[in-house]
User: Fold these one by one.
Assistant:
Number 1:
Amino acid sequence: MKVKICGITDVETGIEAVRYGADAIGFVFAESKRRVTIEKAQEIIGYLPAEVHKVGVFVNESREEIEKIASIVGLTHIQLHGDETGRFSESLSLPVIKSISFQGNEGLAALADYPNEFILLDSPKGKYRGGNGTVFNWNEVDPNLINNHKIILAGGLHANNVEEAINIIRPYMVDVSSGVETDGKKDLDKIKTFIEKAKSTPVGR
């Protein structure tokens, strides 16, 4: 099971997350308490191995700004958390992860033909478009609607529920942010435990 640790804002946490086995590191460039500057993201990415995905999170940002940030900091993937269309997704130069806030299978069906490889399945929107730390009902998801994409599961995951989530959704990757924090800060022990738990959970589609 692949693991993405999102909302990284300092070098040490990025390095340690990768050392523990993280396959992807997420950098938030949208409004969020975990927002990172271009300079800091560039610094962190400079310490990360080439094979680790460096994912930039954006919400309704212009294509020009996304491409500029991606080029400066060295992103490998773009995560779209706003109202971006499939056409907008196709206009970007890097692979796109399109986030959808799960509020029923009707909305999920609308993304069935979305023209990119990855769909991030998240909880309904709260104060921010992601990273709200709430769980949705995984059993409500119709698996037939997500077969055409690599699913990245997010939304309220932590070490104590990630095994159940993986068993139900059988995603390509799990994505965690607040679930590996203590008092709003990334907790290295929680990151290590989460990654170990996720990677020890057998999954097959």
Number 2:
Amino acid sequence: MTTMLSVNLNAIAMLRNRRDLPWPSVTGLGRIALSAGAHGLTVHPRPDQRHVRFSDLPEIRALIDEEFPDAEFNIEGYPSDEFLSLVVDARAEQVTLVPDDPSQPTSDHGWDFGAQADFLKPIVARLKSEGARVSLFADADPAQIEAAAGTGCDRIELYTGPYGATHSDPKAAAEWVEKLGATADAAHRLGLGVNAGHDLTVQNLPPLVARIPELAEVSIGHGLTADALEYGMAEAVRRFRRACGQDV
């Protein structure tokens, strides 16, 4: 399986929002990313719209429909009524549900599936009835995966933040790769697809992909945007595609 790359546009939107100006263009840089071979675009529309704005969603949808019909729109967020309305209106191919408090600066943990499965089941069913693939944010904990599968979701997204934090500690990095790999193994045994995201880089992606050869997709924003400042968006996408094991 080839691991696909979805480019998270939130960091670009946050930079744009520092001024009351239309640049950097969220859709413009999304277009460059898709032209460079990204499989899709990811956004996380938070309630306070401090990153991607609600008004960005139809523009990104139109970009994909009109210029990149084979690409996917992945929208992630906490499943409030407002969020669910947004993703249904945007016709997201994939919806990634995260257990964020609105005040969190970024996603920093997965669902407690044992405690929250009954909450998630009807939401997953509703989104699937709308034609979306549903992925649930998950910690590196194989014991949680049976309950995750019980929600009816299609995939889990491994929260890789702790792995990203080991950037200067090779021993700890190897330990986290194994924890994430064991969780992916548990998911695959139960028929779930596996995505991953958070603090992934060109350097730490290859070991993860090697340990999880059936990793379906990674969504990357902060590290890719940082690379884009140095290399440009198109080359940053190509660098991350190579790190995913793609021929570029």
